Amino acid sequence: MSEPPRPSGAPEVLCFGETMVLLAPGPQQRLGTARRLAVRVAGAESTVAQYLADLGHRAAWASRVGVDPFGDQVLAEVARPGVDVSAVERDAEAPTGVYFKDPDPDGTRVHYYRAGSAASRTTPAYVDALPLEHAQVVHLSGITPALSDSCAAAVDALLDRAGRAGVLRSFDVNHRPALWRGGRAAEVLLSLARRADLVFVGLDEARRLWGTTSPREVRDLLGEVELVVKDAEVGATVFRTGGDPGEFAPALPVEVVEPVGAGDAFAAGYLSARLHDDPPVERLRLGHRLAALALGSVADHAGATELRREGSGR
């Protein structure tokens, strides 16, 4: 029996997870001595939605923000490329999350002020009301379950609901060590990855979490999921289900301006090519092209409308 047609305005991809306001000093400056800070908007899942909108897909972002000017800014910025933000909930009793970047020659440090944020108060009741049934993909990451017990329960509920609805569950492991307490990250993220249909993970974070040292070892650990293992400037390997031996595509050479956001850009490129039914290696190649754009920009969302296919559109 064929599937019923999806409503024309329904999102193809629903991305779920917190987006915050980012404050950062200018080039060559440290946070402790800066007198001016640039204000931007950043969030892993909303960045995926923005790139998908650039590429001509109907993308929606779902989360919660405060009834405050930062919440207004988040909504306006995420919606700018054409992302549907109508499912975002405003919380009058909790603020929009904020974080600060502190550039350092030894590596940029990040300071989060998101405890008690509107997004951290997300519950299963919120995800139960999301417009999910007509989507093709729901995308989420391992950041959300680290925010609070209620967020972890909401992730569980969303995975269960998407599974029942036959919606592809896309999960980016996205391990942020600073968010996890009590040494539970490895166990929780492994369980969530095994429940997903499509998993993105960096080889470095898989090694840190689970001790796996090669894409094949990650595949053996996660089992029968569609798996994409990214190895920074080396390239990425994709394994489909059913004993697939895997396919590899090298990363593109690029001068790195800022590494933040490249993984989200890659995921968006891969998802876009998958929605177009491209072969697996072509999905990796489009992921690399978007990642290269992100690596060459200081912004989480660099803009990728020039990669939109002829005839694509919402």
What's the topology here?
Elements: E1 13-16, E2 20-24, E3 38-42, H1 44-54, E4 59-62, E5 64-66, H2 69-79, E6 89-91, E7 98-102, E8 109-113, H3 124-128, E9 137-141, H4 149-165, E10 168-172, H5 185-195, E11 198-202, H6 203-210, H7 215-222, E12 226-231, E13 235-239, E14 247-250, H8 262-275, H9 280-295
Parallel strand pairs: 1-4, 1-9, 2-7, 5-6, 9-10, 10-11, 11-12
Antiparallel strand pairs: 2-3, 7-8, 12-13, 13-14
Please, what is the CATH homologous superfamily?
Ribokinase
Question: Helix-strand pattern, N to C?
Answer: EEEHEEHEEEHEHEHEHHEEEHH
Structural class: alpha/beta
Number of DSSP strand runs: 14
Proportion of strand residues:
15-25%
Query: What is the tally of helical segments?
Result: 9
Uncertain residue segments: 1-6
Distance from first to last alpha carbon = 27 Å
Brief overview, please?
By secondary structure, this protein is an alpha/beta fold.
Task: Please characterize this protein's 3D structure.
By secondary structure, the chain is α/β, with parallel strands linked by helices. The protein has a single domain (14-307), classed as Ribokinase (UDP-N-acetylmuramoyl-L-alanine:D-glutamate ligase), CATH 3.40.1190.20. It is 32% helix and 20% strand. The protein has nine helices and 14 strands. It has helices at 44-54, 69-79, 124-128, 149-165, 185-195, 203-210, 215-222, 262-275, 280-295; strands spanning 13-16, 20-24, 38-42, 59-62, 64-66, 89-91, 98-102, 109-113, 137-141, 168-172, 198-202, 226-231, 235-239, 247-250. The chain has an eight-stranded mixed beta sheet, sandwiched between helices. A four-stranded mixed beta sheet has the order 3-2-7-8. A two-stranded parallel ribbon has the order 5-6. The protein is globular and about 55 Å long. The protein starts with 12 loop residues before the first strand and ends in a 19-residue tail after the last helix.
